[in-house]
Amino acid sequence: MTTTDVRPPRSSDSTGSGRSSLTAGRLPVWMPWALLGVSALIAVVLFTVLNLGNELADFNIAGATAVAAVVFAIGLVTLSAIVESRRHAVNRLATVVVSIAFLIVLLPLVSLLWTVVVNGLARFDATFFSWTMRSVVGEGGGALHAIWGTLLITGVAALISVPIGLMTSIYLVEYGRGRLAKAITFFVDVMTGIPSIVAGLFIVALVALLLGPGNNTGLMGALALSVLMIPVVVRSSEEMLRLVPNELREASYALGVPKWLTILKVVLPTSIAGITTGIMLSVSRVIGETAPLLLTAGFTNSLNMDLTSQPMMTLPVFVFDQFQNPGTNIEAAMQRAWAGALTLIIIVMVLNLVARFVAKRFAPKFGR
Fold first, then answer.
1. Which of 96, 264, 295, 338 has the most other CB atoms within 10 Å of its CB?
2. From CA 324, how far away is CA 149, in angstroms rounded?
3. Domain ABC transmembrane type-1 spans what residues (predicted)?
């Protein structure tokens, strides 16, 4: 007696023979992406027509993104209701709503980046990075002195803040018990929320008591920024250290390794990726501060590489000064201000890329 080989019929899709996705009651995989492209094209064309006769910087990218999202949502849900079913249409509507919520969060960032890039590229040239503003009241000039001031002041602030913040977090996680640890945690939480100008006023008052009033130096600016950085480093490092499993510590102790060496060789390497990210967040938090640097580092139109004497210009103060005191050519001053803002964003981006590289390079899975 022979048996007959009965095979189920093949399911067809948009790429195989038989019924297509549309006739099978399903939208093709490429349909949402094609609809998204068409929606974006419609929005760009619409806002380009509305922007005719104006500058490229006046293009409303936020509005174009919002219109593209609405057109895409309406089109996709309508097609899904026609081709698929009501249940699939509701599912796609929920997905689109979540995606639109994500876009709404991104809109301010996208609009900000677009505005800064478009306006900043006008003076993003060699002169801007090789000249200072000394004796410049009209066109020309650059931000060399502000770039060096930002790098020096932020670097010194990091050198002060990172060791203090990291050792404080190690104490709180590994050693801290009782009232002292609770008091440190309380004051760190309080320092996290203080206004930045208060940090500048604190340093100005402290230096005035020690050296007398009227001092503005880069070191004062670094100290003011370190007051803002330390609590961020402490809180972020503390959370990363608490994520290290206790089993790793116990295994090290079982082998006879002392506690300090366990922290150095086991705990810190395990959490180095998160600690590095927290440090970069603290740097990004303070590198754009203006108010404390106006009070402490002051401003100057000349290049000053000495942190201990004379005022030192930074990029945030440079941008503020160009808007506040444009000189004889307002348009040239505005271009320098936008270029300074773009330079500051690029510096933060480079620092974050370096932090990601360090985190991946020294993470436990890449360790020796």
1. 338
2. 19
3. 147-355
Q: Which residue has the tokens 């620092």?
A: 351
- pLDDT for 201 equals 92
Provide the pLDDT confidence category of residue 198 given band limits of 50, 70 and 90. very high
- Contact (Cβ atoms closer than 8 angstroms) between residue 188 and residue 169: no
Q: 141 vs 127, 128, 130, 314, CA distance in Å?
A: 7, 6, 9, 15
What percentage of the chain carries pLDDT values higher than 70? 91
Distance CA 132, CA 324 (A): 17
Rounded CA gap, 317 and 212, in Å?
24
Mean pLDDT of 46-53: 83
The pLDDT value given to residue 17: 43
Site of tokens 């590229």: 121
Hey, what are 204's tokens?
């100005």
State mean pLDDT over 283-293.
88
Hey, what are 50's tokens? 């509305």
Give the CA angle between residues 267, 242, 163 to the nearest 5°.
60
Q: Map tokens 């997905």 to a residue.
A: 95
Assess contact for 216 and 308: CB atoms under 8 A.
Answer: no
d(CA 317, CA 288): 9
pLDDT bin (cut points 50, 70, 90) of residue 158 is very high
pLDDT in tens, 215-226: 889 999 999 999
129-362: CATH topology is: MetI-like fold (1.10.3720)
Question: For residue 299, is it left (φ>0), alpha (ψ between -120 and 50) or beta?
Answer: beta
**CB atoms near residue 222 (< 10 Å):** 27
Q: Model's pTM, two decimal places?
A: 0.76
Q: Which of 352, 230, 229 is nearest to 280 (CA)?
A: 352
Distance between CA atoms of residues 127 and 117, nearest Å: 18
Closest residue by Cα to residue 282 from 350, 352, 354: 352
Residue 69's nearest CA partner among 117, 107, 26, 31 is 107
End-to-end CA distance of the chain: 66
The amino acid sitting at 243 is L
Where do the structural domains in the chain lie, given as residue ranges? 30-122, 129-362
Q: What is the mean pLDDT of the chain?
A: 84
More confident residue, 25 or 28: 28
